[in-house]
Write a structure and sequence with these properties.
The protein is of the alpha/beta class. The chain has a single domain, classed as Hypothetical Protein Ychn, Chain: A. Helix content is 43%, strand content 24%. The protein has a five-stranded parallel sheet, with helices on both faces. Strands 3-4 form a two-stranded antiparallel sheet. α1 runs parallel beside α3. The longest helix has 16 residues. It is globular and about 35 Å long. The two termini are 22 Å apart.
Length: 120
């Protein structure tokens, strides 16, 4: 199976595209691939519980359902520390979530290690 990186940079302002990133990550996990997700830019806002619970993409479903499936499937999740700080996403927003705050060099490392990169 492949190593797949899903890089999500869009946030709640584009619910369909944001939910699609997680839906595709869920599909990759379901297929048995090793999946990592790196959320940056406005994408870090998707990790807030209110957004996870309410965001629904047109034809791409519930963000919460895809997020829960991705986590249950063992995907590794990273959030840009710089993007999080700039958008007020705090440790409290990430509490209880298997998300690691990371810097751009981690994204580069994940990209180099991956067989495929999908960006949303």
């Amino acid at each position: 199976m492949a190593k797949i990186l899903v890089h999500v940079t869009c946030g709640p302002e584009n619910p369909t595209k944001a939910a699609l990133g997680f839906l595709v990550a869920k599909a990759a996990v379901d297929e048995g691939h090793e999946v990592s997700m790196f959320l940056a830019g406005d994408g870090v806002q998707l990790l807030r519980d209110a957004v996870l619970d309410l965001l629904e993409g047109l034809g791409t479903g519930s963000l919460r359902e895809s997020y829960d499936a991705v986590v249950a499937g063992g995907a590794r999740l990273y959030a840009s520390g710089m993007s999080s700080k700039a958008r007020g996403v705090t440790e409290a927003d990430l509490e209880g979530k298997p998300v690691e705050l990371a810097m751009p060099n981690r994204l580069v490392q994940l990209a180099v290690e991956s067989d495929r990169i999908l960006t949303y």
